[in-house]
């Protein structure tokens, strides 16, 4: 089973905007999901160090979509495979591929879940506590569809699809929670 740690709980509101940043470990895969806007780089690097990892230990970065609040700190991890909805990138190599069903390790795969943006993906992680969805389909646990979603109906469609598969949601801007 994969290990999942939320290393920074994001937020969006009067306080500012910060994305939720997660660490996924499964076999040789050590992935950071959505290394975006946070109060300081130490908000990512500190928890990573507490887990015994340096940026050089990270093998992959997964981007749910290309908004700065989910991407701005990607350069903290310079020698990684980067995954988004249409390709995997490493240094100067761009390998186009579908994201839907892409298996990054035995317990980690990607789903295409457009709606917030046309390019959104969700990362599914098989953990001992159940399957987790790292996704921007929810801003946080109590969030209705966001006024910033390009296609709210598509967000609702993909929420239903994801809820059939998971026990845990790691939303784009809030702490992890169990599905009721």
> CATH topology, which one?
Metallo-beta-lactamase, Chain A
Structural class: alpha+beta
User: What is the β-strand count?
Assistant: 15
Give me the CATH architecture, please. Answer: 4-Layer Sandwich
- The mean pLDDT is 96
Number of DSSP helices?
3
CATH class: Alpha Beta
What does this structure look like?
The strands form 3 sheets. A 7-stranded mixed beta sheet has the order 1-4-5-6-7-8-9. The protein has helices spanning 42-50, 68-71, 152-163, and strands spanning 3-8, 11-13, 16-18, 21-26, 29-33, 60-62, 81-83, 87-90, 93-96, 103-105, 108-112, 121-127, 130-134, 168-170, 177-178. The protein contains 3 helices and 15 strands. The chain is of the alpha+beta class and 180 residues long. The chain has a single domain (3-84, 96-178), classed as 4-Layer Sandwich (Metallo-beta-lactamase, Chain A), CATH 3.60.15.
């Amino acid at each position: 089973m994969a290990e999942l740690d939320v290393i920074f709980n994001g937020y969006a509101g009067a306080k500012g905007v910060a994305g939720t940043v997660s660490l996924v470990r499964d076999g040789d895969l050590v992935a950071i999901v959505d290394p975006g806007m946070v109060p300081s780089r130490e908000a990512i690097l500190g928890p990573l160090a507490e887990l015994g990892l340096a940026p050089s230990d990270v093998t992959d970065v997964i981007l749910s979509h290309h908004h700065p609040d989910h991407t701005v700190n990607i350069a903290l991890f310079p020698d990684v495979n980067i995954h988004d909805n249409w390709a995997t990138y490493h240094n100067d190599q761009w390998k186009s591929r579908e994201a839907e069903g892409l298996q990054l390790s035995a317990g980690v795969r990607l789903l295409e879940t457009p709606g917030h943006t046309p390019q959104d993906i969700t990362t599914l992680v098989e953990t001992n506590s159940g399957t987790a969805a790292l996704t921007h389909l929810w801003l946080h646990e109590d969030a209705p569809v966001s006024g910033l979603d390009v296609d709210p109906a598509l967000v609702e469609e993909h929420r239903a699809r994801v809820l059939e598969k998971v026990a845990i949601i790691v939303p784009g801007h809030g702490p992890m929670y169990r599905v009721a």
